[in-house]
Specification:
Layout (H helix, E strand, L loop, with lengths): L8 H7 L4 H6 L12 H7 L4 H10 L15 H34 L5 H38 L16 H21 L11 H46 L1
Helix pairs in contact: 5-6, 5-8, 6-7, 6-8, 7-8
C-alpha cells in the first residue's frame, strides 16, 4: 500500500507505462487525472484500492524504450506526437464521423443513445482536428524555437522570441476533449458490443475503443511529460534572457 498511497496517478504511469492498462481497466483516465492522488481517485470512484494495487504490482516491470516516453528528449517527443499520434488521429477521425452517422441512422430507434454519441463524435472530431492544427502551427514551432534558444549565447537571438503563455490553454482543451470521450464511453457502456448488430456497428465500437485508448495515451504524453519538460525549458530560456538583458 505504501508504494502507491502517496503517489499521483501520473507518477505511477511515468514510472511504468504498463500500469496504464490497469487504470484503463478500472476506467481511471490517467491522462487528465494524472495530477490526482491515487487513493483519492480510488475513494472517489468507489474502487477497492487493494484490488487495483495487486494489479499494479503485477504489471510487467520491463518497459520497452519506445514506450519509455519520459526518457525521451523534447524534440523527439514533438516528432513522435506529430508524425505518429497526429497522423493516426487524422486518418481515423474521418472514419469515426462516417460510421457514427451511419450507425445512428440505422439503429437510433433501437439504441437512442447513438444519436447523442453521433452528435458528440461529430463535434469533438472538429475540436481535435483544430487542436492538432494549433499544436503543429503554434505550440510545436514555439517549443522548437525554445530548444534553439536554449544554448544561444547572443542576446540578439532572444529579441525575436516572444514568451507565449499557451501551454495551459492546450491543457484546458485536453481536459474538455477527454471529458467528451468519457461521456461517449459511458453512453456506449465502454464500447461493449450489443448482440445482433451489423459489421458497421461492430467496426464503430472497435474503432472508438482504439481511438479512445490512443487519445488517452497521447494526452498523457503531452500533459504529464511534454508540457512539464516544456515549462522547465521555457523557464530556463527566459531566465537566461534576463541575464543578458
Amino acid at each position: 500500500m505504501k508504494r502507491f498511497e502517496n503517489k499521483l496517478i501520473a507518477d505511477i504511469v511515468l514510472n511504468n507505462i504498463n500500469t496504464s492498462k490497469v487504470f484503463k481497466e478500472f476506467n481511471i483516465d490517467y491522462s487528465i487525472e494524472g495530477n490526482k492522488n491515487f487513493l483519492t481517485v480510488c475513494e472517489h470512484k468507489n474502487i477497492d484500492s487493494k484490488k487495483i494495487i495487486n494489479k499494479l504490482v503485477a504489471a510487467h516491470k520491463d518497459v520497452y524504450y519506445l514506450q519509455n516516453y519520459n526518457s525521451w528528449k523534447l524534440d523527439f517527443l514533438i516528432e513522435f506526437l506529430s508524425e505518429i499520434h497526429h497522423n493516426y488521429k487524422e486518418e481515423n477521425i474521418l472514419i469515426l464521423k462516417q460510421y457514427s452517422k451511419k450507425v445512428a441512422d440505422l439503429y437510433s430507434k433501437q439504441y437512442p443513445e447513438l444519436l447523442e454519441v453521433n452528435n458528440l463524435i461529430q463535434g469533438v472530431s472538429e475540436e481535435i482536428l483544430e487542436h492538432m492544427k494549433n499544436e503543429e502551427t503554434i505550440l510545436f514551432p514555439y517549443l522548437n524555437e525554445l530548444l534553439k534558444l536554449e544554448n544561444a549565447s547572443s542576446t540578439s537571438k532572444y529579441n525575436s522570441s516572444k514568451k507565449l503563455k499557451i501551454i495551459d490553454s492546450f491543457e484546458d482543451e485536453h481536459y474538455k476533449i477527454r471529458k467528451t470521450f468519457q461521456k461517449i464511453a459511458t453512453l456506449t457502456n465502454y464500447y461493449i458490443l450489443p448482440e445482433n448488430i451489423c459489421n458497421s456497428f461492430k467496426l464503430l465500437y472497435i474503432k472508438l475503443k482504439n481511438f479512445d485508448d490512443r487519445l488517452q495515451e497521447h494526452i498523457h504524453i503531452e500533459n504529464n511529460i511534454l508540457f512539464p519538460k516544456a515549462k522547465k525549458l521555457q523557464f530556463k530560456v527566459f531566465s537566461k534572457k534576463k541575464e543578458y538583458s
